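In practice, a research group might receive sequence data for several interacting partners and want a quick structural hypothesis before committing to experiments. The following worked case mirrors that situation: the sequences arrive first, and a predicted assembly follows.
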Amino acid sequence: MRSKSAQEPHRYAIAIHGGAGAVPRAMLSKLREQRYRAGLEAALDGGFALLERGGSALDAVTGAVRVLEDDPCFNAGHGAALTRDGAAELDAAIMDGRQLRAGAVASVRHVRNPIELARRVMEKSRHVLLVGSGAEEFALEESLVLVPNLYFRTAERQEQLGSEQRGERVSDLVPAAQGTVGAVALDGDGNLAAATSTGGMTNKRPGRVGDSPIIGAGTYAKNGVCAVSATGHGEYFIRAVAAHHVCAAVEYRALSLEQAVREMLHGILPALGGDGGLIAVGGDGQIVMDFSTEGMFRGARDSAGRREIAIY
Amino acid sequence: MSRPRLLALLCLAVAIGPARASEPRPLAIAIHGGAGVIDPAKMTPAHAASYRAGLAAALDAGYAILERGGSSLDAVTAAVRTMEDDPQFNAGRGAVLNHDGDAELDAAIMDGHGPRAGAVAGVRHVRNPIELARRVMEKSPHVLLVAEGAEEFALEQGVVLVPREYFRTAARVRELEEARRQAGELKAAAPGPSGTVGAVALDRAGHLAAATSTGGLTDKHRGRVGDSPIVGAGTYADDDSCAVSGTGQGEFFIRQVVAYDICALVKYRHLTLAQAVRELIHEKLRRSGGEGGVIAVDRYGNIAMDFNSVGMFRGARDSRGRRDIAMYRDAQ
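A structural hypothesis for the assembly, expressed as tokens:
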């Protein structure tokens, strides 16, 4: 048995999301849909390429999330949703399932790639979570690229903020409340990792932090169990300790990953009043992507040949 | 099952039912004032008496609320506020100072009925961070607000703001100077577990609540947030299982999702509260290298207080007549 598994190449897999939300299908223009699909493909293939050449799950999720942060279509990094003051305030977290190491940042305004900073917090500091100007001080100490807040603000997001503040219906951008990007991966060594990055809710109160940078809520990874990244109405995911709950359901109750994700999205969260989506990968490389909203921008690819991008 | 036996069981159930209902439901509260903070060799009798008095004041303030039919939420808020105002403890006034010499405060509260939660992190001017956390839960659609945005919300809510000097006590300034000197000499020294205050309670209506408040680590990096304001890590409550408040090396508590994991073990693995707490503190946390402790109460009013550090300032009181205050392992 052991020699067989040693000969067989280990399975590896990656899944990504670009936010769960309810852009009604009819409202999504062909051009916009193509842009979303192209962005998701770039992130998915970028992350998968790293796994394919023996890279770590940690590098794969970092790479995939960074691509989505740089893409103005998605609510993270460049093109993040704006606070009620018109500024971008960014949150991100990363977790390494191998030793349960984690790093996160919240409410940063000048870090081009918050996921990079979260990773530095994990690898170069003795802390897990840094917030606000203290996190940016650490970014400077680590020589990360800082940018003016203007870098993040796209014309489309400013328009979206304006229409939300006027109480108008929002465009076909990733819906205001629920965009977030994330990735989960299993590498050839059997290590799991998860990463999530977001600008949060459009028109949010400055200082509001959602589930993305909260270890156990929006992001969690534990080797042999699962890696999870969430998107949706963050307050509910925090109260439900959503990402850790999924792992606990697999570990303590022997639920399948699919059952655990379903219980959270279609049982626990609706009972609290929340909706959204989850992507997860198990220790065996099984990928689960589910949501309770009309759609979720998502992609999955594994060493068994699966490769898909989907929205609805 | 034979008919007579079934009948007998039914009679038994009927007999137990009303007896249970007429018995008053249990009340319980437990508090902590930090784990591992004081070397027993350095603890003078005067110090010990003073800590005991501070813990007793918080414990009794919380219990009095439960006794007159108040909610567990009010009880944990009152107990924590009492310790925030007491400069001996690392929360509110007397909180430890960060690298820049400021107190940066974190707090969270969770109502097991809902469940709902509120938390604040990195605030520097809020006299009672636990009050602000409660406002976040009750008056905002959010769970966590940080830094200046949280203080903006405090102003909107009429919560008392104070100058930063309010928090800085002479003892904490000396501690910071000492920590800086040691950091200069011994760069790689790991941070010891820090004091933090917290409370968990069960009220007459059967609702559980948990609250935690802290100044974090001495000489911490500005913006560093530990487990206290992280729902699931340092604070968690669910009426179906238990309420937990943690204290110790926050980074380890976050990574292990300690408070929630204890409740998950109770709810899904059907461990007793004491077993679940032991599993987290003496197995999972210790294996990962983390030091600290937790207090917890379950829906039956059982209290568990355990730690893997030298000591943990703690107190427990319930409607069965228990009332104790302790600091070290031997319940002294």
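Before designing any experiment, note the following. The first strand of chain B starts at residue 28 and ends at 35. Chain B touches chain A through 47 residues (CB under 8 Å).
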